[in-house]
C-alpha cells in the first residue's frame, strides 16, 4: 500500500504554485501563504474524498471556499471595527485589463458567474473538465457557461466600444465648422 503522506507531499509540491497563484489573484498578498496552508490542511483531512487525477480542481474548490470565508471574515472585521482601510492586495481579475479600458469596463458588466468561469478557464488556463470539478457542475455545464460568458463579454465589449465611439464622434474636430450661424 502506498504511503499516504508521501502521496500527499507529492500533490502538495505539484499543486502549491497553482493554488498560491489562484489565491494571489483573489486576496491580499499577506494572506496567500496562510490561506494556501489552510487549503492543504483541509485537503489532508479530506484526502480520501478526492479521486486520483482530480486533485487540482478539488484544491481549487477548497481554495474558493477559503477565499469566500476569508472575505467574510474581513467584511465582519470591517463592520465590527468600522475600519475602511484599502487592502494591499494582488490585482483583481479586471485589473489585468487596465491597458484596455474598454475591455475592463466590459468585464465589470459581467455577472459573477460569467467572470468566475472566464477567470478559471481563460485566465487560470484550467481545463474545462477540471473547472467543472472546481465549480461542482458537469463539464457540459462549464462549456455552456463558458460559451455564454464569452458571448456576454463580446456583447458588453461591443456596447462599450459603441458608447465610446459615439462619445468621440460628438466632439467636433478642430477643423470642423459649426452649423450655427455667426452672430
Automatic annotation (TrEMBL):
Q: Gene name on record?
A: rpoE
What name does the UniProt record give this protein?
A: DNA-directed RNA polymerase sigma-70 factor
- Hey, what's the signal peptide range on this chain? none
Q: Does the keyword Hydrolase apply?
A: no
Instruction: Give start and end of each RNA polymerase sigma factor 70 region 4 type domain.
Output: 104-153
Q: Where is the composition biased (Basic and acidic residues)?
A: 167-183
Give the protein family. Belongs to the sigma-70 factor family. ECF subfamily.
- Does Membrane count among this protein's keywords? no
* Entry-linked Pfam families: Sigma70_r2, Sigma70_r4_2
Domain (RNA polymerase sigma-70 region) ranges: 12-73
What's an example GO cellular component term for this entry? DNA-directed RNA polymerase complex
Sorted alphabetically, which keywords does the UniProt record give? DNA-binding, DNA-directed RNA polymerase, Sigma factor, Transcription, Transcription regulation
Amino acid at each position: 500500500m502506498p504511503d499516504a503522506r508521501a502521496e500527499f507531499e507529492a500533490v502538495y509540491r505539484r499543486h502549491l504554485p497553482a493554488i498560491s497563484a489562484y489565491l494571489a489573484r483573489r486576496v491580499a498578498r499577506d494572506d496567500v501563504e496562510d490561506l494556501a496552508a489552510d487549503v492543504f490542511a483541509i485537503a489532508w483531512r479530506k484526502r480520501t474524498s478526492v479521486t486520483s487525477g482530480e486533485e487540482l480542481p478539488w484544491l481549487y474548490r477548497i481554495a474558493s471556499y477559503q477565499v469566500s470565508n476569508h472575505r467574510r471574515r474581513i467584511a465582519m472585521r470591517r463592520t465590527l471595527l468600522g475600519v475602511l482601510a484599502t487592502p494591499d492586495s494582488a490585482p483583481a481579475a479586471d485589473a489585468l485589463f487596465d491597458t484596455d479600458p474598454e475591455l475592463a469596463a466590459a468585464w465589470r458588466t459581467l455577472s459573477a458567474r460569467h467572470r468566475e468561469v472566464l477567470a478559471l478557464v481563460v485566465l487560470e488556463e484550467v481545463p474545462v473538465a477540471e473547472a467543472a470539478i472546481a465549480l461542482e457542475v458537469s463539464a457540459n455545464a462549464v462549456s455552456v457557461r463558458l460559451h455564454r460568458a464569452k458571448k456576454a463579454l463580446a456583447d458588453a465589449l461591443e456596447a462599450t466600444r459603441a458608447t465610446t465611439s459615439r462619445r468621440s464622434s460628438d466632439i467636433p474636430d478642430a477643423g470642423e465648422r459649426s452649423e450655427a450661424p455667426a452672430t
